[in-house]
Amino acid sequence: MNSTRKQVAVVVGATSKWQADGRNTLLAHGKVLDDSALPVGVRWGVGGAIAQRFAKEGFLVVLTTRNAANASLLERAINEQGGTSMIVELDLVSHASIAKAFATIRDQVGDPDVLVYNAGYLEGRDLPPDKELLEHVPIDIFETAQHIASRGPFLVAKEVLPAMRQRGAGSFLISNNASSLRGRKRLTGQSLYYPRVMMRTLAQVLTEEYSEHGVHVANVVIDGLIDSPGTRALPRAQQQPDAVMNPVKIAEAFYYLHTQDKSCWTHELQLTPFATKPSV
After folding, report:
1. Is 272 within 8 Å of 278 (Cβ atoms)?
2. Mean pLDDT value across the chain
3. What residues have CB less than 8 Å from 104, skipping those under 6 apart?
4. How distant, in Å, are the alpha carbons of 31, 76, 87, 126, 136 from that of 84?
């Protein structure tokens, strides 16, 4: 391997469904929002902020998304900041798509040094109040949640961990939420999030399996409402601005995890705004 090559960071789910024209934004607000006045660091949520942070540190950042057009403005922003990035289409519901995406990444830029799994989904948010109970949840909603929260990270791990193990170095970082800490009833307007418990469990298993091979695995519990065009316009964000999390600062936590010394790795990190109590 060429020792002078750029380090590669892959962000799975590089753009937010709460971006100006994202699916959550359209569901909540019924229209595309104007994000021109927002800082560039928050326009694409956590994934976009992480991508910009690693690009700033000299990484070649691979932005994965189901549709390349979703990440085109983020790619442009990174390039305008002097960074390097590329877009690779990846659909986490399809094993073939995952395999093809990582084959493309390996062929064009090499094996990733960092993998950030930041995939999200909105399935369940549009169910009405009288459909909160599990008996009313359509099986396709459950299956999508399982694909993104459990099967997806498993398949992505199989794509990147062998090379990290052979190299004796690398970071596999998972962006998770408070629903991964324990099972909770799904409330109206929320996604079907309890499968994220499996995402946390996978991180724990991979920690036990791969830490001794020099691979840093960590589950990051983002415990709060993340700033983005769509969330910033919500009434609760405007009423409690101190409870809104800055994705630029969240991204700093991910970069910190990657740069930790092997003698004191963090394997789970919970980030909570000062104005709220940590979820348990």
Report:
1. yes
2. 95
3. 88
4. 31, 10, 11, 37, 46
Run of H or E including 72: helix 72-80
pTM here is 0.95
Q: Could you tell me the two tokens for 265?
A: 């790795």
Q: How many CB atoms lie within 10 A of CB 167?
A: 14
In the chain, the amino acid numbered 161 is: L
Q: Could you tell me which residues come within 8 angstroms of residue 115 by beta carbon, excluding any fewer than 6 positions away?
A: 9, 10, 12, 156, 160, 170, 171, 172, 173
Residues 98-130 have pLDDT tens digits of 999 999 999 999 999 999 999 999 999 989 999
CA distance 223 to 245: 9
| Residue indicated by tokens 């990190």 | 269
User: Does residue 24 contact residue 125 with C-beta atoms inside 8 Å?
Assistant: yes
Nearest to 25 by CA among 256, 230, 279: 230
> For the chain, what's the residue count?
280
Q: 């809104």: which residue's tokens?
A: 244
Is residue 186 within 8 Å of 132, Cβ to Cβ? yes
